[in-house]
Amino acid sequence: MALNTPTTRGLSLPFSWPNIAFATLLIGISLWFLFWGLDYTHHNNVMIFVLATVFGVFMAFNIGGNDVANSFGTSVGAGTLTIKQALAIAAIFEVSGAVIAGGEVTDTIRSGIVDLGAVDIRPMQFVYIMMSALLAAALWLLFASKRGWPVSTTHSIIGGIVGASLTLGTVLSSSGSALALVQWNQIGTIAISWILSPVLGGLVSYALFYQIKHHILRYNERAKEQLQSLRGERRKLNEDHKTAFERLNELQKISYTNMMVRDAQIVLGEEDYTPDELESEYYRKLHEIRKKRDNIAAHRALQNWVPLIAAAGAAIISAMLLFKGLKHMHLGFTTLHNYLIMGMVAATVWMATFIFAKTLKGGSLDRSTFLMFSWMQVFTAAGFAFSHGANDIANAIGPFAAILDVLRTGSIGSEAAIPTLAMVTFGVALVAGLWFIGKDVIQTVGHNLTTMHPASGFAAELSAATVVMLASTFGLPVSSTHILIGAVLGIGLVNRQTNWGLMKPIAMAWVITLPAAGLLAALSFTILNGLF
C-alpha cells in the first residue's frame, strides 16, 4: 500500500503532529509511572524496576503494533474505519477489556507456566525470568511487525518464559531439573488451543459469511442485474418515444403533449391510480417498468436478513459483557436476568437496523449495503477490541505485575494486584504501537490475505470475538491472532480469493515464534543474571 493512502496516512511521517503527540504522551505517562512506581515498590532495586518498566512498556508497544493492528486490520482494510477511528476504539475498549475481563488470563500467564516448586529459586531470579520474557517477546514482535507478519503475542511471551526458565534450571542444577521447572502439561493444553484457534475461527467465519453472501450479497447482485435491465428498458422506451414523437405533425404533437401532461399529473399526484386512467402509451409502458422495479424489491434482503444478523451479533456481544466482563462488577444479575437483557438488546438492535434499512430504500443498493455493514462492523470491532484486551494485553501486564509484586514484597506470591496506573500506561503504549508500527500488519490482514468488504469484515470480527471471548472465559491464553487469521481465511475460502502464498511465511513465523522468543529470553536471562 502506498504511504499516502487513507489507511496508512499519518503512520509514516516522523515529524507529523500526531506522531509528536503520541510520542510525548507515551514518554510522559511512562515517566509518571516510574515516579509513582518508586514509592509503590518502596525504592527496592531501583535499576531493576526501571528496566522492567522499560521492557514492559516496550512489550505493550509491540502488542499494539502487531496484535492490535491485526485486530483492526479487517476494519481498516474494508474502509469501515480510518486509523484515527481505530485508535479511538482501541484506546477505550482494549484497556477496558483488560481491566474488566482479563484476570483469568493474566493468572494463567504469570503462574500457570513455570512450576516454582521444582527447584529452589530466589525471588529476583523469578523477576529476571519475567523481564527476559518481556524483552524477548517484544523484540520478536517488533521483528515480525516490520515484516507484516501477524504473530501471536501469547506464543511469544510463553516462549520467553519457558526459555528463561530452562536457562535458570540449567544454571541451578542440570538439564533434567530445568525441564522439570516447566509445566509441560500446561504447555500441551495451550498448544492444543493454538491449533484449535485458527480452525474454530475459520469454521465460524466461513459459516457466517457463507450465509451472508448467499442470502444478502448474491440476492443484491441479482437485484442489481434486474435493475440494470430495467434501466435499459427505460432508455429504449425514451428513445422510441422520441422517435415516434418526431414523426407526428404539429397538431398531433400538441394533442399528445397534452395527454402527457395529464398523465404526469396523475402519476405525480396520485398513489393508487390504475393504468387504465393513463392516456399516453409512454406512461402506460413506464408504469409497467416501475411495477417490475417494485416487484424486484431490491432492498428486501437488507430489510429481512441484515436486522436478524445484527440482532444475533448484538446478543453475542452483550453475552460477552454480561457473562464475562461485567461479572467482576457484581451487579447481582442472575442467569435469567442476563438472558432477558440479551433478548432486549437483540430486539432493540433488530428494530433499529430494520428502521435504518427502510430509510435507505430507494437509494443505491451498493451504498446501502456498505453503510449497513459498516455500522455493524464498527460495533463488532468494539466488541473484538474488548475481547482482545481481555485476552492479550495480559501478555504484557501479567509478567510485569508479577515483577512489581516481587519488588514490593520481596517474595513470590501466588497472585499479584495490577495497579490501575500500570494498566493505563500499558494501554497508552499499546495504542502508540498501533499508530507507529501497525501499518504493515494492517496491510497484511486487511488487504493481502483476501479482499475485505464491510460485510466480510463484520463476519470475521464477530466470529473472532466470539471464539476469543469464550476462550478468555475459560482462562485459556489462546492466540487472537490465529483466531482472526483463521477467520480471514474462512472469508477467503467463501470468496475463493485466499492468498495461500502469503500464508507460507506467516505460518513459518507461527512455528518459529515460540523457539525464537525462547532463545532470545535465554540470552536475556543470562545477561541479567550475570549483571545483577
TrEMBL record:
The keyword Transmembrane applies. It is found in: Membrane. Its main location: membrane. One of its GO terms (biological process) is phosphate ion transmembrane transport. It comes from the Bacteria. It is a multi-pass membrane protein. Keywords: Coiled coil, Membrane, Phosphate transport, Transmembrane, Transmembrane helix, Transport. Residues 220-254 form a coiled coil. The chain crosses the membrane at residues 20-38, 45-64, 126-145, 157-181, 187-209, 305-326, 338-357, 369-390, 416-437, 476-494, 506-528. GO terms for cellular component: membrane. GO terms for molecular function: phosphate transmembrane transporter activity. PANTHER family: PHOSPHATE TRANSPORTER (PTHR11101). Belongs to the inorganic phosphate transporter (PiT) (TC 2.A.20) family. This is Phosphate transporter.
